[in-house]
Amino acid sequence: MKKLLKSITIAEWLIWIASTLSVAVCFFVFGNTQYLYLIGAVIGVTALLFVSKGNPLGQILTIVFSIFYGIVSYSFRYYGEMITYLGMSAPIALWALVSWLKNPYKGNRSEVKVNTLSRREWLLFLAAATVITVAFYFILQALNTANLIISTLSVFTSFAAAYLTARRSRFYAVGYALNDAVLIVLWSMASYENLTYLPIAICFAAFFVLDAYGFINWSRMGKRQNNTQKS
């Protein structure tokens, strides 16, 4: 644990503290008593911090966050979010955990080896994402899901983020950032009806910052790892 905490830089601590404080302040200012939301948000922020560092611990926390988020989504009839996170994001996060543990960078299990996808895999990924999104549209429509179009778009971005994370691509962060943007809109709409959900929108705004940092950090990791292999 001591080694794990030392691996977090000052900048990363500042990002984590600012993210958790923004969610907590919003939670208490609006008199929210659903502490499950707050706990889930803190777990999610912490998960993304470790994912941005390429640490497998981030995937373990992602699985836990998916369970919390699935429960919250069910409470507002965002069935797409519930099904996506419990039925897709959590299982893929488990796959990602196994993949990351099997592909450490030079035996260092706290840092995954960054991967580059081939053009063929990108095409297969886009085809699979399209098929899954179309299928989910009709499933969510049948379930009378709130905000159907945005919920369906969230399925696409969630799949993209989860798949690219499992495949150890730095573009996982782009997928997550797009998903964050969609979910900020989705939960802002929910907040318009009930301010209880505003901390969740703020939570995904914090996630967006962490995912932007994740893309930058993974790009650095990839360059460093490639340069080390060449030398």
- What are the segments in which pLDDT stays under 50 over at least 5 consecutive residues? none
Label the overall shape.
globular
Distance between the termini: 32 Å
Q: Proportion of β residues?
A: under 5%
Rg result: 17 Å
- Describe the sheet with the most strands: 2 strands, antiparallel
Q: Based on helices, strands and strand pairing, what is the structural class?
A: mainly alpha
Task: Give the % helix.
Answer: over 70%
Largest sheet, spatial ordering of strands: 1-2
Average pLDDT reading: 88
Our count of helices gives 9
Order of helices and strands: HHHHHEEHHHH
Describe this entry's structure for a reader:
The chain has 231 residues and is mainly alpha-helical. It contains nine helices and two strands. A two-stranded antiparallel ribbon has the order 1-2. Helix 2 runs antiparallel to helix 3, helix 4 packs antiparallel against helix 5 and helix 8 packs antiparallel against helix 9. It starts with a helix and ends with a helix.
Write the layout of secondary structure elements.
Elements lengths: L1 H5 L3 H20 L5 H18 L4 H19 L3 H24 L1 E2 L2 E5 L6 H24 L5 H19 L5 H22 L4 H33 L1
Antiparallel strand pairs: 1-2
